[in-house]
Amino acid sequence: MPRQIPYIIANEGCERFSFYGMRNILTPFLLSTLLLFIPIGDRTTEAKHVFHTFVIGVYFFPLLGGWIADRFWGKYKTVFWFSLIYVAGHACLAIFENNLNGFYLGLALIAFGSGGIKPLVVAFVGDQFDQTNKNRAKVVFDAFYWIINFGSFFASLLMPVFLRDYGPAVAFGIPGILMAIATGVFWLGRKKYVHVPPAAPNPDSFSSVARTALLARAPGQSRPGLMVAGAGAVAAVVSLCMTPSWGFVIAACTALVLLLAFGGIGVSMQLERARGAHTDAAVEGVRSVLRILIVFAMITPFWSLFDQKASTWIVQANSMHSPLLSVFGWEFTLLPAQMQAVNPILVMLLIPFNNIALFPLMRAVGITPTPLRRMGLGIALSASSWVVIGMIQLWMDGGDRVSILWQLLPYALLTLGEVLVSATGLEFAYSQAPAPMKGIILSFWYLAVTVGNLWVLIVNAGVKNDVVGGWIAGSGLSSIAFQMFFFAAFAAVVAALFALYAIRYKMVDNYRKTA
């Protein structure tokens, strides 16, 4: 086992505690402290807007971190310097607990720092192995995944208590200390790491092939793909012009989605024109990435549902009854934010359950649990979790006193969906993308999370509209119940479309060949 691995594992454990520690108390803090100046009827909507804007940033900045590491600094330096920005962000949260601009600056720095290192740490672990010890890599990646859930569990369990008993300065300060420790531990191993230098620019990269395909001329033919991509660029500019009414985040993210969607369609229309200027393998690699992007696009509703467990579900839990529980004589009541601790515990239980029980059962009844089938089932399960959470909300809206423990069922369904979608998605993408394109696939995977949270912001903004609000009121549902059933229906429809696409998708095998 490479002797530098413990430094990276310890770094990841502390970093994940710091991230989930602040993330899981963000919505309760916004509702109870920072946003008290907002009328109570609008406070929940604004808290959700702030939370999902933050998540969008976290999953957008991997693009920047990966680019800097690949072209300039390498993985170690990029992780180290972005980690210092990350620590500064935590400090701002602790210091500016009553200052709106200072607190938002802290969130921006954490999104920048956390997002910047997100695509690099796992790859940095892989860099520490070679042909002589590659058999140890799986053990390390299992430990890596375990420590992430370990950190998430204790952060979800403890930080809401610190927020309640000691206030936001302490509650946000502790994750900051953990991130500082994570950075220090990572720095201590600097002389032991294997440092892979930044790669030279690749003439057959995804962007190079796509640009050639769009700009290449064919004798006697127009460039329809370029016109489609151009239409997407115009639509993106229009989206940015809507910033005053939509807000910058919605306008900018919508512009990005339009550029990717229309640009991808345009490239696929003229991709064959890149042959000759680029290798056949590079052209086919771009074709594979474009096919994978369709899968990623249909996964975005899942992320809309999944990330709202730290916003919408906490808002619901705030209005629920928390009974007195007893474990080995220790009596306690669960805080709303502590319910999120259910997720990492269930992840660690459901992965072996799937491998030991669920997948063998599917095979026994003649259903092969292919990656696409697993992901489609995961989206459907996430939709069902929101049907359940919506039914609970109707129960509450009817005036009944509902126990917070009723959220255990939707948490179980959503976590099972997470395991089937998230754990399978990267496996699927890795197997389908040729070696030179695997890096770009990871970036697009994170962008899928960004787009998923964009849908939440759009729905959130739509509910504020007087016409939409009046229509919801006329439906007999509360605003929160309506949104719950809307997102359930959204995911269910996409799960059906996903199933249809999965039938037509032809799997390939792009795992590295053995010598």
From TrEMBL:
Keywords: Membrane, Peptide transport, Protein transport, Transmembrane, Transmembrane helix, Transport
InterPro entries tied to this protein: Dipep/tripep_permease (IPR005279), MFS_trans_sf (IPR036259), POT_fam (IPR000109), PTR2_symporter_CS (IPR018456)
SUPFAM superfamilies according to UniProt: MFS general substrate transporter (SSF103473)
Alphabetized GO MF terms: peptide transmembrane transporter activity
Subcellular location: Membrane
Pfam families: PTR2 (PF00854)
Residue ranges of the TM segments: 20-38, 50-69, 78-96, 102-122, 143-163, 169-188, 224-240, 246-267, 288-306, 345-365, 377-396, 408-428, 440-460, 480-503
GO-annotated biological processes: oligopeptide transport
Membrane topology: Multi-pass membrane protein
A GO CC annotation given for this chain: membrane
Sequence similarity: Belongs to the major facilitator superfamily. Proton-dependent oligopeptide transporter (POT/PTR) (TC 2.A.17) family.
Name of this chain's protein: MFS transporter
